[in-house]
Amino acid sequence: MTDLTGQVVLITGVSSGLGEQLALAVAAAGANVVLMARRQERLTRVADQCRILSASQAVALAGDISSVKAVDRVFATIDEMFGRLDIVINAAGFGYLAPAVTIKPALMAKMFHVNTLGVMYVSQLAAQRMRSAGHGEIVNVASIAGKIATPKSAVYAATKAALIAYDNALRLELRADHINVMTVNPGPIATDFFKTADPTGNYLDSVKWLALNPVKFAQQIVNKLGHHRREINAPWVMNAANLGYQVAPKLGDWLAGSVFNFK
């Protein structure tokens, strides 16, 4: 098990789902955790659970990752309380499944502000502090959808594809500073994510056979911290499909629009 004793870890999007499980796994590894999410009540509950798991600190800071002012407040608190930041894990994000020709512009903008621009800004501020310290790790949760887009996920997939591209460049920029950038690309996860993305519940029901367990997947991510891992792509069947997509894109288009289209 990864030992994070004494390290300071910022995690965004921790009020539920994968973000919550990542917070608990990092706390159990001994880290001081700084938790950011929009919902104060759930955020406080997760922080309390972290304190039970670890003798280290758990700081709950309510805020929206799409707000520059909110992110600035979080980093100001980290500077004041700890004076360092070793790891940041951006798990904040949301999706909404809708045809590209009908999805509302406001919803498109919101997804980009949360899933892409907000994560980029957190990563930028983290990188500035890590570069001064000469070490650190940035972990951004994107999606396998950013590699294999399917019908009704055009905008969501675009936000994640942009994040993957950003990470690929950021990784190269920070390599000489001993800062690793790891991109996590999960397929469907059995969480409340789909209550927003697909209120009908039909999609999650159709992919239960390959949906990731959030507790186990969070532990898998934490176990890779400090190992200079470039990417985590899961589950294996979707990672294999992605590799095949690169080799035979026309076949990949057919599969993405038929066999792997559960929406």
From TrEMBL:
Keywords (A to Z) from UniProt: Oxidoreductase
Molecular function, one GO term: oxidoreductase activity
EC identifiers of the protein: 1.-.-.-
Pfam families in the record: adh_short (PF00106)
Alphabetized SUPFAM superfamilies for the sequence: NAD(P)-binding Rossmann-fold domains
Family, similarity comment: Belongs to the short-chain dehydrogenases/reductases (SDR) family.
UniProt protein name: SDR family NAD(P)-dependent oxidoreductase
Species the sequence originates in: Lactiplantibacillus daowaiensis
